[in-house]
Specification:
single chain, alpha/beta, Spore Coat Polysaccharide Biosynthesis Protein SpsA, Chain A, 8-stranded mixed β-sheet, 32% helix, globular, binds cytidine-5'-triphosphate, binds magnesium ion, lyase, EC 2.7.7.60, isoprene biosynthesis, 2-C-methyl-D-erythritol 4-phosphate cytidylyltransferase activity
């Protein structure tokens, strides 16, 4: 395929505090990773690279093959690193030679609908080097220091960044080759390298499972509505 999706799932889930790495925590009968991969396999066809904690590569392979159905040939699983950026770098090293567009997706955004992937892929295919899904900020924001409000912040100029983030493969490879500092997402790394980052509409269901409240929200969304 022309597209690869790197699903980063090598984090420990400290804030969730579930006792096992976050990607392997159950939402319902299925794990966060399995749900995330369902969305990936329902999206346009791509090589799928799962980046797992180094002692969970076997478990991640089981989840990936389960989600892949008949497309086991598309799956690779590699061990991640100590930071998200290191985990993405490990995934990038496994991208097949003919791939032109690379998406990087947080496994923790387990309920991301397939059409978000399609929007991001289309925008890169149309010529953007870097594309991220965003949502408008809904909260009233304040700049604070030492428990005191310094000033209100105009939310209309802000956006909340989600994943999958999509990149022209050569541009992402180059940025990772030259990366010095650690960045919280790939768009920040690319932007620091001077690449223009375009936005497309995100989706509320692409929220990141970070805390127990987020996990409860995910559980409510996947639960069949009682009748
Ligand atoms: N991630 C990763 N490798 C790391 C750190 C994070 O692959 N060394 C992945 C996580 O698995 C997750 C995504 O990056 O899918 C976003 O990270 P985050 O939500 O912060 O997950 P964790 O780092 O696992 O959680 P926490 O920060 O609470 O420990
Ligand atoms: Mg983290």
């Amino acid at each position: 395929p022309r597209v690869a999706v790197i699903v980063v799932a090598a984090g420990s889930g400290t804030r969730l505090g579930a006792g096992s790495p976050k990607a392997f925590v159950g939402i319902d009968a299925h794990t966060i990773l399995r749900h995330a991969l369902r969305g990936v396999f329902d999206a346009p066809e791509a090589q799928v690279i799962v980046v797992a904690p180094d002692d969970r590569v076997g478990d991640a392979t089981t989840e990936a093959l389960g989600a892949a159905g008949g497309r086991r040939d598309l799956v690779s699983v590699v061990a991640g690193g100590a930071t998200r950026q290191e985990s993405v770098a490990a995934g990038l090293a496994a991208v097949w030679a003919d791939v032109e567009i690379v998406l990087v997706h947080d496994a923790a955004r387990a309920l991301t609908p397939p059409d978000v992937f399609a929007r991001v892929i289309d925008a890169v295919a149309e010529g953007s080097d870097a594309v991220i899904p965003v949502l408008p900020v809904v909260d009233t924001l304040k700049r604070v220091a030492d428990d005191v409000v310094v000033e209100p912040v105009d939310r209309s100029v802000l956006a909340a960044a989600q994943t999958p983030q999509g990149f022209r493969r050569a541009v992402l490879d180059g940025a990772y080759r030259d990366a010095a500092a650690d960045h919280t997402d790939d768009a920040a790394l690319l932007q620091s390298a001077g690449t223009q980052v375009r936005t497309v509409p995100g989706d509320e269901r692409a929220f990141k499972i970070t805390t127990t409240a987020d996990l409860e929200h995910a559980r409510a969304l996947v639960e069949p509505v009682p009748r």
